[in-house]
Design goal:
single chain; alpha/beta
Length: 253
């Protein structure tokens, strides 16, 4: 089964932002995934770990957010896709993403319940309407039944209580919270994603599924890093790998 997580990377206008005549220098700005889109992504990774779902991350194309997307790709998604858009408007991004979703049918679509770049909670509903699939908003968890027949969705309602739903239909969940789990990328995923391009799709009608993150072999690595390739990477070792990759000191054959 397949999950698609729709994200919109956000520019970080924090203290490191450089201004030119009062206008942010976008070339020097870092991008990040806001906490709502990250909650949607964590929900997808949990389902992948427990049930083996294939996970695709979908985002509007922008070379400035490539580093951000590769970092979250390395956390466990099977594929990362850029879609060509004509503007940064919420309507255009929702329209292009929904066209992709119609061609590549997913069992579950996830997105954040609030979009920081649009300052609105309506992106999920707009995306679902354009994609002709039902939507459940303010979702706090999505699980899959042990018999593999239906999803179990927990939703927050206005009086702070939680309702539970079960469905076997394809749907979009607009996620507002997820388990607070710290995810570290494996060394294998870090190197794969750093050294492979994000799939760029300009013509939606020819966007058949494929996986661009191909197996690689490694050299110039110490024994502790080599061991991590098998067991996965956590904590200080993950940070060490990230620094080595950024300095181009960890290479591929």
């Amino acid at each position: 089964m397949k999950i698609c997580v729709c994200v919109n990377p956000v520019p970080d206008f924090g203290e490191n932002c450089i201004l030119n005549d009062g206008i942010p220098d976008y070339d020097g700005i870092n991008y990040y995934i806001d906490r709502f889109d990250m909650a949607a992504y964590q929900t997808a990774l949990k389902l992948k770990k427990s049930h083996g779902f294939a996970v695709t991350v979908l985002a509007p194309e922008n070379p400035l957010n490539e580093k951000c997307l590769k970092r979250i790709w390395a956390l466990g998604a099977d594929r990362c896709v850029w879609l060509k858009t004509v503007s940064d408007s919420i309507n255009n991004i929702a329209s292009v993403m929904s066209s992709y979703l119609k061609v590549n049918r997913y069992d579950l679509v996830l997105t954040g319940s609030y979009s920081s770049n649009f300052s609105t909670g309506g992106f999920g509903a707009l995306l679902a309407e354009n994609s002709d699939i039902p939507v459940i908003s303010d979702v706090i968890s999505v699980d899959f039944s042990t018999d593999g027949k239906y999803f179990v969705i927990r939703k927050k309602i206005q009086d702070h209580t939680v309702e539970e739903y079960k469905t076997d239909a394809k749907f979009l969940a607009s996620v507002c919270a997820a388990e607070n789990v710290i995810n570290y990328p494996s060394a294998f995923n870090l190197l794969n994603c750093e050294n492979h391009s994000i799939d760029f799709i300009e013509d939606i009608t020819s966007s058949a599924e494929c996986i661009n993150c191909m197996p690689c072999s490694f050299h110039d690595i110490s024994s502790d890093i080599a061991a991590a390739l098998v067991e996965g990477t956590e904590g200080e070792l993950a940070l060490k790998l990230i620094k080595l990759i950024e300095k181009k000191e960890l290479l591929l054959k």
